[in-house]
Design a protein that fits this description.
The chain has helices at residues 43-52, 61-85, 88-92, 96-117, and strands at residues 16-20, 27-31. The protein is mainly α. It has 2 domains: 1-55, no CATH class; 56-119, no CATH class. Strand 1 and strand 2 form a beta hairpin.
Length: 128
């Protein structure tokens, strides 16, 4: 039996729910707060996909918010590509523009992780 419990949104921590897109058509999971969505599929598929995602690393607030926005936009673009082109992109790779976006987001995340992991600068003036 499939567990139908949804994890909180990996981007904002908001509550999510399963949405029936059309009649007896596919379903998706959508966050009530940031409106990030999962892929389309059966209820079991979309819940499993949603619950596999991991939250972004913690970084300073302003940068974290920008990174969060970029990840949400990327994720929604990836869902659109999957829904428009079917699942073929998983076999043939992401379209170039989407692969570039993914790389840029990963590079930004790595840079921000380095910044947040750096030791704080001393706050006291040193006597020379």
């Amino acid at each position: 039996m499939t567990d139908h419990t949804l994890s909180p949104c990996p981007f904002c921590g908001g509550k999510a729910g399963v949405i029936q897109l059309t009649g007896d058509g596919p379903r998706t999971v959508e966050c009530d707060e940031c409106h990030c969505r999962s892929c389309w599929g059966t209820e079991e598929e979309v819940i499993a996909a949603w619950n596999r995602r991991t939250p972004p690393a913690a970084v300073p607030d302003a940068w974290s918010n920008l990174l969060l926005a970029a990840k949400i936009l990327y994720h929604n673009a990836e869902v659109c590509v999957a829904n428009h082109h079917g699942r073929d992109f998983k076999a043939f790779g992401l379209p170039g523009w989407l692969a570039d976006c993914k790389r840029d987001i990963e590079n930004a995340e790595a840079s921000l992780a380095g910044i947040s992991a750096a030791p704080a600068a001393p706050t006291e003036a040193r006597d020379e």
